[in-house]
Amino acid sequence: MSLMEQPGPVTTRPGMLYPSASSLHYLVPISPSPEAAASPAPGSMFSWVSKDARRKKEPELFQTVAEGLRQLYAQKLLPLEEHYRFHEFHSPALEDADFDNKPMVLLVGQYSTGKTTFIRHLIEQDFPGMRIGPEPTTDSFIAVMHGPTEGVVPGNALVVDPRRPFRKLNAFGNAFLNRFMCAQLPNPVLDSISIIDTPGILSGEKQRISRGYDFAAVLEWFAERVDRIILLFDAHKLDISDEFSEVIKALKNHEDKIRVVLNKADQIETQQLMRVYGALMWSLGKIINTPEVVRVYIGSFWSHPLLIPDNRKLFEAEEQDLFKDIQSLPRNAALRKLNDLIKRARLAKVHAYIISSLKKEMPNVFGKESKKKELVNNLGEIYQKIEREHQISPGDFPSLRKMQELLQTQDFSKFQALKPKLLDTVDDMLANDIARLMVMVRQEESLMPSQAVKGGAFDGTMNGPFGHGYGEGAGEGIDDVEWVVGKDKPTYDEIFYTLSPVNGKITGANAKKEMVKSKLPNTVLGKIWKLADVDKDGLLDDEEFALANHLIKVKLEGHELPADLPPHLIPPSKRRHE
């Protein structure tokens, strides 16, 4: 009996894709042959076998994308990183926990912008170590994570726990670890995501230096590993301090993860809010050098009454959009990890070219120090040479200034020459293995709910009368006993009888003459016609015509049309027929 045919349950851990032997399994090898890639094995969706597995005659069984990524990293990318000392220059080696951890959300902002209050608002529960106040209260990095009981795990204990993705933070020393902790508690929101609270960013050189550790470097470490970075701004304090500017620049190459929240927006009038929003976009445009406009969510993210309720609908819509973005993180987590591994592999390749180029230029015996200084000063020319020789995009190169600083302390004689086999292995991973894992990513996504984060504030607007848009637009009159279109029907009837009805109905041509007066596009009017023609006879009676005009009004007021006609909008006479 083959491996795929063996009966009995398959041992799984929470979050694994396939819980039983009856489920789909993927046979995913590390180094596929073209024949194996072209011919799936019977009984499995995708099957290709690594060289080691072919020798053993036993295929690798990957049940999740995370497992496949872990194997790819360990067998193909890690050897290249170690050979060219990648971890001393850029980022520590990845561990198992980096592939298995839940999606993480990193909150960054100046002091008193509402970071801790934002977490309290999301999970609707106090967490250990939480302090809220107008002064700089949160002086630590706090990882808010799920746990069976409430408690705090201090930083030094946290970085030796192999189940947590924080072991490599040990490199930042005791000054940082004394300011790092994990607050764990049983909470349904934390079942799906973890949230990282950060110290408020200060202004002033003295306060910045007094931290005792490289704050921007720690944030950069987290930025590489989190799924979403939320920058919080206070509508009353838009100034971006030097440290905050440095932090935002440290988040370069992670712009796709960044979202901006303009918090406490209920405390200013609409006209002022427009000016504040414009000023924020101008300030961010000077720091975040991307052609795309960063997404800004405007609102007041806490559970207190709105001070100025004029923009209530705007705040509700913005909050709903932000919640949807956060709720999508578990569904997209595998794709994010895949994307981050690709970025890491591209950087590792460029790093290998840089180190091997420096090694090649070094003399064997005399003049090593002077040559080293010359090479560091001319690193920009080496970048250009590598770019031309290997057709590498300039955007793949590490920061020139940072690389020059790091090279000052390195012993160039210990650098390794170019080893094409290691680079070919990574190229094979990017060209073949990653492409095949993409298929698994889509399969995992299709099996997950679109809104995987539940509990806390996410449940408050899911259903019932306080759901976003409830009782508005096409939902107006959902709880009324009377047909909501009926109140305006006399007005619509007057128009109806001017359109030459025959046997109580008007033709599509006559209806069109009236409907196009709305100036809505034909694509929209065509959808309204399909919704209003309830009995599908190609004609409209007086109730259907009134319904068509009601839907036109809904669209003109800025609401979306429903995909299907809601039960409360079905004309009374048509309900009796159903």
What does this entry look like structurally?
Its main location: membrane. InterPro entries: DUF5600, Dynamin_N, EF-hand-dom_pair, EF_Hand_1_Ca_BS, EF_hand_dom, EH_dom, EHD_N, G_DYNAMIN_dom. Residues 99-330 form the Dynamin-type G domain. It is a peripheral membrane protein. One of its GO terms (cellular component) is recycling endosome membrane. With 578 residues, the protein is an alpha/beta fold. 45% of the residues lie in helices and 9% in strands. It contains 24 helices and twelve strands. The protein has helices spanning 34-38, 51-56, 65-83, 86-89, 96-100, 115-123, 155-158, 173-177, 205-209, 215-225, 242-250, 270-287, 312-327, 329-361, 368-377, 379-390, 400-407, 420-447, 457-460, 489-496, 508-515, 522-532, 542-556, 572-577; strands at residues 26-27, 61-62, 104-109, 141-146, 151-154, 180-185, 194-197, 228-234, 258-263, 296-298, 505-507, 539-541. The protein has an eight-stranded mixed beta sheet with strand order 5-6-4-7-3-8-9-10, with helices on both faces. Strand 8 (228-234), helix 11 and strand 9 (258-263) form a beta-alpha-beta unit. Helix 3 (65-83) runs parallel beside helix 14, helix 3 (65-83) packs antiparallel against helix 18 (420-447) and helix 14 runs antiparallel to helix 18 (420-447). The chain is elongated. It starts with 25 loop residues before the first strand and ends with a helix. The model is unreliable at 1-60 (pLDDT under 50).
